[in-house]
Amino acid sequence: MEKPATIKDIAKRLNISLSTVSRALRNASDVNPDTKKAVMALSEELNYQPNKLALSLRQKQTHTIGVIVPNLDYVLSLMVRGIDEVALEAGFTVMVCQSNESFGREILNTRRLLESLVDGFIISVSSESKSFDHFKKIQERNLPVVVFDRVTPHLTAPSVRIDNEEGGFVATEHLIEQGYKRIAVLAGPENLGVSNSRMDGYLNALKKHKIKKDPALIVHCDFNQDYAYFATLELLAMKKRPDAIFTISDRMAIGAMLAIKKKGLRMPEDIGLVGFNNEPVTSLVTPTISSVDMPSFELGKAAAKLFIETMHNKENMDLEEKVLKPKLIIRESSQKLPTKK
Amino acid sequence: MEKPATIKDIAKRLNISLSTVSRALRNASDVNPDTKKAVMALSEELNYQPNKLALSLRQKQTHTIGVIVPNLDYVLSLMVRGIDEVALEAGFTVMVCQSNESFGREILNTRRLLESLVDGFIISVSSESKSFDHFKKIQERNLPVVVFDRVTPHLTAPSVRIDNEEGGFVATEHLIEQGYKRIAVLAGPENLGVSNSRMDGYLNALKKHKIKKDPALIVHCDFNQDYAYFATLELLAMKKRPDAIFTISDRMAIGAMLAIKKKGLRMPEDIGLVGFNNEPVTSLVTPTISSVDMPSFELGKAAAKLFIETMHNKENMDLEEKVLKPKLIIRESSQKLPTKK
DNA sequence: TTGTAGGCGTTATCAT
DNA sequence: ATGATAACGCCTACAA
């Protein structure tokens, strides 16, 4: 069983033509039941596998989806699993590339996947990306592009995301309801849509509860633990320091938590904290950290489904926007009042 | 710029033959500098990209590596990034599949990647796998297989791993040196080589320090937090309970930690704890957990390098075995004595 | 230095 | 119902 068998081999051994074998294999319309049986039997015996390369070359479709993600942290790796699940089911193979949050890398990934002749893309943009021309070029080639999780208004494409505004809102309102008055927000880079939406939610909650927004309490910093740590230290050094912090990711919440501890402040008594993503680590640290949970696996599945739909009717690309609902998980870091009921 | 340009297009526009263009593109030996220049210019203008499918079909090489991993947790995702890094550099594309620790899934992944005509495999076996025939079949097809991280004696292949025995040894000896007397080990499934090696290290450390091994202190359980939690509860319920636990993964260490806390015991005073992998979470929980660190990213890079070597001289496949050194990171959970020096 | 032709494995078109 | 042939895009003897 050295070299994989080909249609040719089968044809030769059966003394029939290539085309007949080909037809028999795909149990086409006109083909003698007997020959079909013979072909099937032999192909079984030779363990025949159609050569995907040849197929793809012929029909100009690789049945491969290029997936670009900024990283493979807990949440994204769940999403990718969701994508994989659905894609496989639908006969697609998935090629995952990490941009490592780098714009240059993202462009490189795009090019490579394009060279690999993927049939389309499912992407979550890097936090560094301010231009989206590389993705637009894909669309110009008439390849379907679905954006997930990190959606951006600068790229017009069908998308799947969670309701980030809602997430920011419930997190903030929860803090307000717990009696916190000066609520700061640790947001990500200014160009990141996800971050801005969550911040909008924060602002909406303030407005609803008639709390004046204080620019000093709104901090943009890099999407990572260390930056969040230092940003929090600065917040806590203010004359009128905040009495609660909403961070738009759990990584940042961890950074904030470390800074708060470093300052000798207690959660939730002295200061409240809510994160975003509901990573497992939030329930392992002391105190456990409240966080906005999102259905990551489901989101991935939805993205793949949307991709396949888009693929199938390229004509009426309605720019569907699917939005899933987040859910606040309340833990120790923000629960100042005893639980109701 | 609708359809990608082909060699044919260039040839037509330049009124020369396909082969000349082909040669010019790969700046082959015999080709008129002028025509070459013309070809280059036009190919630039048309944004020509060689069609990988056609290339692969022709030269029977896809320049793609199939990577199968049990999951994409912190450590493995780092390793995959390492693989990716090196592979890209060498002109290879990587296709990553997760087996989700499932044997059946692993077989499926293998088949799919084989169908995708990958040039070879870099794999880390699932904890469930007891048979390795699916991998042996790959080798019979004469495709290079490199095993990394989770190596198994049942599969003869070049491999990269860390010195797990050493890791188990230093973790255990550290506990002994800290004065712990009854050291339990939470091992993984019995068929998992990694787990057994780490356990061997544990046993060696006991032997070196003339501590009798107590079978009751050796517990096999599934490679995950919940099982570790319950296993630890049982350990702690013993009449003569252990005064230290070495778990062969951090996930399990977390489970153990939760159980220890649940029982109201303190670390390191009442009980010592050391994990394995040095996941970031170990330094976030309270107390921080000592853990054996391994150079995951480097390990991934080494695996890819080894793969490429193997690929290049298939003849003398020397079955190279690369072993990297782990390093114990001491934290609060096991540091009973004051630091020396 | 350049062109012609055959082939990689498959499918689709057109005959037979 | 089956076969011959061209084509997908590229490379490479071999011929010119």
The second-level CATH architecture of the largest domain in chain A is: 3-Layer(aba) Sandwich
Across the major sheet of chain A, the strand order is 2-1-3-4-5-11
Poorly predicted sequence stretches spanning 5 or more consecutive residues of chain A: none
Give the oligomeric state.
homodimer
CATH superfamily of the largest domain in chain A: Response regulator
Total beta strands of chain A: 12
- Give Rg of chain A in angstroms: 26 Å
Please report the number of helical segments of chain A.
12
The chain-level mean pLDDT of chain A equals 93
The H/E string of chain A reads HHHHEHEHEHEEHEHEHEHEEHEE
Report strand % of chain A: 15-25%
Largest sheet of chain A: 6 strands, parallel
Would you write up a description of this structure?
Two copies of one chain form a homodimer. The first copy, chain A, is α/β, with parallel strands linked by helices. Chain A folds into three domains: 7-49, 434 Repressor (Amino-terminal Domain) (Orthogonal Bundle), CATH 1.10.260; 59-162 and 296-324, Rossmann fold; 164-294, Response regulator (Rossmann fold, 3-Layer(aba) Sandwich). Chain A has helices at 7-14, 18-25, 33-45, 52-59, 74-89, 103-115, 133-140, 164-177, 193-208, 225-236, 250-262, 296-312, and strands at 64-69, 93-98, 120-123, 145-148, 159-162, 183-187, 218-220, 244-247, 272-277, 290-293, 321-324, 327-329. Chain A is elongated, with a radius of gyration of 26 Å. The mean pLDDT of chain A is 93. The interface between A and B is large, with 38 and 38 residues. Chain A binds a DNA duplex (16 and 16 nucleotides) through residues 6-8, 16-20, 22-23, 26, 30-32, 35, 50-51, 53-60.
